[in-house]
Amino acid sequence: MSIDTGLRQAELLGLRWPDIDFEGRTLTVRETLQRVDREYVLGPPKSETSCRTVALSDLSLKALRDEREAQIAARQVASRRCRETIPGLVFTTSLGAPRNGSSLTHALQKALHATGLRPLRWHDLRASTAASWSRPGGMTTARDRLGHSSIAVTSTF
C-alpha cells in the first residue's frame, strides 16, 4: 500500500478508519503516528501540504478491506486482552496496539529476502512511487500526491 499511495511510514501508521473512504476510493492524511519516549503519539503531518487526500487503487482497497476483517476477527479472539490505546487505527497488532515502524520495516525486509530482492529502506518505496508519478503526470502531480511543499523537494527523489 505504501508503494501505491506514496505515504510516509508515519502517515501510514497514523491512518484511522474514518480516514478511509471506501466508496470514494480515497484516504485522507490527517495525522502521523510517532513513538516518543516509549509511547505512541498522534501528531500533525510533516507540513500543511502533507494533509491531503490520496486516490486508492483496487489493490489498496482490497488490502484495507482485508485488514479491517482481520482486525475485527483478531479483536473477537482477544477481546479481554485488547489494548487499543489509540482508537480506530488502521494498522495495529492483533491486540489492537499501534504498530511499530520497525515491525513494518522488518516485514518489508523479510518479504524482499523471500523473493530474492535486495534490502530497501522504507523511504525507498516512497522514492520509487515519486519517480513513477513524476513521469506521466509531471512534477506538479507528484508533488501534490506526495504532500511535498514544493517541486524542488519532489525533484530530489
TrEMBL record:
<dbReference type="GO" id="GO:0006310">
    <property type="term" value="P:DNA recombination"/>
</dbReference>
<feature type="domain" description="Tyr recombinase">
    <location>
        <begin position="1"/>
        <end position="157"/>
    </location>
</feature>
<dbReference type="InterPro" id="IPR011010">
    <property type="entry name" value="DNA_brk_join_enz"/>
</dbReference>
<keyword id="KW-0233">DNA recombination</keyword>
<dbReference type="GO" id="GO:0003677">
    <property type="term" value="F:DNA binding"/>
</dbReference>
<dbReference type="GO" id="GO:0015074">
    <property type="term" value="P:DNA integration"/>
</dbReference>
<protein>
    <submittedName>
        <fullName>Phage integrase</fullName>
    </submittedName>
</protein>
<dbReference type="InterPro" id="IPR002104">
    <property type="entry name" value="Integrase_catalytic"/>
</dbReference>
<dbReference type="InterPro" id="IPR013762">
    <property type="entry name" value="Integrase-like_cat_sf"/>
</dbReference>
<dbReference type="Pfam" id="PF00589">
    <property type="entry name" value="Phage_integrase"/>
</dbReference>
